[in-house]
Design a protein that fits this description.
Elements lengths: L1 E2 L5 E2 L4 E3 L2 E3 L6 E7 L4 E8 L2 H19 L3 H17 L1 H12 L3 H18 L2 H4 L3 E7 L2 E9 L2 E5 L7 H12 L3 E5 L6 H13 L6 E3 L4 H9 L3 E7 L2 H13 L3 E5 L4 E5 L5 H13 L9 E7 H17 L18 H16 L3 E4 L18 E4 L6 H4 L6 E7 L2 H10 L2 E2 L1 E5 L3 H10 L4 E4 L15 E2 L2 E2 L6 H7 L1 E9 L21
Parallel strand pairs: 9-10, 9-12, 10-11, 12-13, 14-15, 14-20, 15-18, 17-18, 20-21
Antiparallel strand pairs: 1-2, 3-4, 5-6, 7-8, 8-24, 13-23, 16-17, 19-22
Helix pairs in contact: 2-4, 2-7, 3-4, 4-6, 10-11
């Protein structure tokens, strides 16, 4: 515990290693954890050095041989129990998310619910790991395949979904027989500790999941650690690029999901009221701190004035409050630095000639004047050369780019280096089919603003939104955390019954 200038104590969190809490090492660095709604420090988090990372990896490595041999039904039963505990503790998790991240409670509960879907998917691991069998591939010869776990895997997760993204990774990794070292964001670390405790209560053996807090020092040590077989990451594109390059150079399997610049195309034949509702939620929900947030509306000229009018009215109606306020629609952004960066991009757009239809800079919530609030912002007349368009804003801002029609809109999207998500609002099936086939994005919505796949599909983008070939969770997640093995076997009745050994390579019936 440490004492603030006001005389109140703030807790110092610990790591979770080998089945229980673990303090930071002697002289360990720490970082403050803020409540974004007040700007106050609510905890301190230790920043792991090589010693703590080594201890977590060693615990995972010790646990792997036994865990990898646990029957699939037993693994599934642990995940079923974990799901029950998540449901029981949804409000507790939502409260932690709201306090350390700032998102409103309803959104935080939704985050837990989307993570639950992946737990439910992973609980089906007996079906998901079924292999293939070829009877009598040659005379007396059978061939079959199955998949085995990799070993110790690292999960490096972002601040914007402190529960959901760990649940995208950990349940699939452990269900397939791996052990895990989770490195959550140091900005909102407490939820990961509760997840670890709930998995322990569900029956997960000690060492199968370990949590180390830290910054780049801890991440780089994980990336280079000889006992880490694979790395999963969700975060910004520059960090994703670094993680992919470093981990691959050290012989690891990598899935690294980066940033985004998600576009929504609105054609003149769309239901503009419904489109405006969807875009308002997609742009301003979670204060825009989502990798699937819609930050650009590509609007057909004939509908642009009306859509901007609707977006402006809806933006002004968004209730910006602390996350725990009962009628809040949107909370603060994560840090003061994030607030200043977002407001700087808004100001830059104005100087570049864009029109601020709704300006969220300087938004103040009474009683929370030190909070990190940015109001919903609508910027019209944005062009592709403006910084606010080129950068991932990661805040409650929607840019309006006017286009002549679908062809130009698709061209704008495909020229962007990101390729995470794209959406189209239209009443035309022909336009929808053209769009979904032509657009360069890994996830596409048709009259759906945020097309995050359900748990039994996989999540991931194209271009600078993904480094490596594997998307996350779903079938691709199972493949990522396992490697295939093929067995060719013969069981002759006696040695005399076996065909003579051949000294040349043969195929088919010559096996």
């Amino acid at each position: 515990m440490t004492t603030t200038a006001r005389g109140t104590e703030t807790p110092t969190l610990g790591h979770w290693i080998d089945g229980g809490p673990a303090a930071g090492g002697a002289g360990a660095r720490t970082a403050p954890v803020h409540d974004p709604a007040t700007g106050q420090v609510v905890a301190h988090v230790p920043l792991a050095g090589p010693g703590e990372v080594d201890a977590a990896v060693a615990a995972a490595l010790r646990a792997f041989p036994a865990w990898s041999q646990v029957p699939l039904g037993r693994r599934a039963s642990i995940l079923f129990r974990f799901r029950e505990l998540l449901v029981e503790h949804t409000d507790a998790l939502a409260g932690i998310i709201s306090r350390e991240h700032g998102k409103v409670l309803s959104d935080a509960r939704g985050e837990v619910a989307r993570g639950l879907e992946v737990v439910e998917f992973a609980a089906g691991i007996p079906q998901l790991l079924k292999g293939e069998f070829s009877d009598q591939a040659s005379t007396g010869v059978d061939v079959y395949s199955f998949r085995q776990p990799l070993g110790v895997v690292a999960a490096i997760t972002p601040f914007n979904f402190p529960v959901m993204v760990p649940l995208w990774m950990v349940p699939v990794a452990v269900a397939t027989g791996n052990t895990v070292v989770l490195k959550p964001s140091e900005r909102d670390p407490s939820a990961s500790l509760l997840l670890a405790e709930l998995l322990r209560q569900a029956g997960l053996p000690d060492g199968v999941l370990n949590v180390v807090h830290g910054d780049r020092e801890a991440v780089d040590h994980l990336l280079r650690h000889r006992d880490v077989a694979a790395v999963s990451f969700v975060g910004s594109t520059p960090v994703a690029r670094h993680i992919h390059a470093t981990a691959v150079a050290h012989g690891k399997r990598v899935q690294a999901l980066g940033g985004a610049k998600n576009h929504a195309v609105v054609l003149a034949d769309a239901d503009l009221e419904a489109a405006a509702d969807a875009l308002t939620a997609a742009a301003f929900g979670s204060a825009g701190e989502r990798c699937m947030a819609v930050s650009v509306a590509l609007v057909e000229d004939a509908a642009a004035d009306r859509l901007v009018e609707l977006l402006a009215a809806k933006a002004r109606a968004v209730r910006v409050r602390p996350g725990d306020h009962p009628d809040a629609d949107m909370g603060p952004v994560i840090t003061r630095a994030a607030k200043e960066r977002i407001e700087g991009l808004i100001g830059g757009a104005e100087r570049a000639g864009a029109r601020l239809v709704v300006d969220g800079r300087g938004h103040v919530v009474h009683g929370h004047e030190d909070g990190f609030f940015v109001g919903p912002t609508v910027v019209d007349g944005v062009t592709a050369d403006m910084e606010i368009y080129r950068e991932e804003v990661f805040g409650p801002v929607i840019d309006v780019v006017r286009v002549t029609g679908l062809e130009e809109a698709v061209g704008v999207i495909n020229a962007n280096p990101y390729g995470n998500g794209a959406a189209l609002f239209t009443a035309s099936g022909e336009a929808a089919r053209t769009f979904q086939r032509a657009v360069s994005a890994g996830m596409v919505g048709i009259n759906v603003a945020i097309p995050v796949p359900v748990a039994y599909h996989s999540f991931g983008g194209w271009g600078d939104s993904l480094f490596g070939e594997s998307h996350i969770y779903g079938p691709e997640g199972v493949r990522f955390y396992t490697r295939g093995k093929v067995v060719t076997e013969r069981w002759p009745r006696t040695r005399d019954a076996a065909p003579p050994a051949s000294f040349h390579f043969t195929g088919g019936a010559g096996l």
